[in-house]
Design a protein that fits this description.
Layout (H helix, E strand, L loop, with lengths): L1 E4 H15 L3 E5 L15 H5 L4 E3 L4 H13 L3 E6 L9 H8 L2 H4 L9 E6 L14 H5 L5 E3 L4 H13 L4 E6 L6 E4 L12 E4 L4 E5 L3 H14 L4 E5 L2 E3 L3 H11 L2 E4 L8 H13 L8 E3 L10 H4 L6 H12 L4 H7 L13
Helix pairs in contact: 1-7, 3-4, 8-12, 9-10
Length: 347
């Protein structure tokens, strides 16, 4: 066990799997650049060479087709996009080929492919470099989608994705890259398709995705000081959708809030509420609430960007509505801790 930053944990996942499995290789635009994809490829080019750290042209559709075809032939490619916003350029390959290949061959063909996309945040990134798109990808049968929130899961989910026989969309947030935490050594896997209870409680179930996990934990701590016990669930696997962990939690709490790092409509939060309403409506004491990004693109202006993303304050305000309890003073004392570190420029 050692302390690693988020990006270092991803790097370690690559190194461990590339040493153990010669069929693993990394491909993408800028993967041999000295910046090493925000540090997550540090040292890998020197250790494994350009045969396994493969620089590609600025042709995302072609790179996806190449990675997909090599996966069908037994390789384990990891295709990296510096921004997840480039995935729409490759939708034909992802939706019509990667996602459907195994189904079209009756499960006799595998596509062990990881497509990693990084979500930007901070001034200058603007509308075209800050989208998350995990809900968009999760809508497609045949794809698995993961969004880690901490270094340990960043490594464990990456290893699980690389070793999975199905295509996995791995989305990590640039704003979390410098977050530190304990990470196991060697190869270990975090199960894909299973949400994780990271704080137990009995008054309210709070489900969070990606950067909102840190905000949820802070909100839960503030609420606990006011006498309310919040159960926090890290929803780090978007697809397969683990609604049963949520339902089991609601059996205790009777209340549900979902804090998603995405827009409010047609997304993960809506899918979860739909499943909960169909399977466990009788357990809910009040209507579920969703905390999300505003329903418009992310602005490029710093003055607008800094108020775009929800924080622990918004979560606490919604909890206050549930229980008619005012946490305002506590929010003012602790809200400065709620913000994840962000980069100070476009990259």
């Amino acid at each position: 066990m050692s302390i690693m930053k988020f990006y270092e944990a991803i790097q370690d996942a690559y190194r461990q799997t590339m040493r153990a499995y010669p069929e693993v290789y990394i491909i993408g635009v800028g993967v041999i650049d000295p910046k090493a994809v925000f540090g997550s490829l540090n040292g890998l080019l020197e250790e494994f060479g350009e045969d396994r750290i493969v620089e590609g042209p600025l042709a995302e559709q072609m790179l996806t087709g190449l990675a997909f075809s090599s996966a069908t032939l037994g390789m384990k490619p990891v295709l990296i996009h510096h921004r997840v916003d480039f995935l729409p350029l490759t939708m034909d390959q992802i939706v019509n080929h990667c996602a459907k290949w195994s189904y079209m061959f009756g499960g006799q063909q595998n596509v062990p492919l990881v497509i990693r996309g990084i979500v930007g945040k901070g001034w200058g990134n603007g509308p075209q470099h800050t989208q998350s798109l995990h809900s968009l990808m999760a809508n497609v049968p045949g794809l698995k989608v993961v969004v880690p929130s901490n270094p340990a899961d960043a490594k464990g989910l990456m290893i699980s994705a690389i070793l999975d026989n199905d295509p996995v969309i791995y989305i990590d947030h640039r704003a979390l890259h410098n977050e530190s935490g304990e990470v196991q050594s060697g190869i270990y896997q975090v199960p894909i398709g299973k949400a994780k209870i990271i704080r137990e409680g009995h008054d309210l179930t709070l489900v969070a995705v990606g950067p909102m996990v840190k905000e949820a934990l802070l909100a839960a701590q503030v609420c606990s000081e006011g006498g309310y016990s919040i159960e926090v669930i890290d929803f780090h696997t978007i697809r397969p959708l683990d609604d049963m962990t949520i339902i089991k939690s609601i059996q205790k709490t009777g209340h549900l809030i979902i804090a998603d790092s995405d827009w409010p409509y047609f997304g993960v939060a809506a899918a979860l509420i739909s499943q909960v309403s169909q399977k466990a409506f009788h357990l809910l004491k009040k209507a579920p609430k969703v905390i999300s990004w505003p329903d418009h693109p992310v602005p490029a202006s710093y003055m607008l960007d800094k108020d775009y993303y929800p924080t622990a304050t918004q979560i606490i305000n919604v909890v206050s509505e549930f229980f008619s309890k005012n946490f305002t003073n506590k929010v003012e004392r602790q809200s400065t801790k709620a913000h994840v570190s962000v980069n100070t420029g476009p990259f």
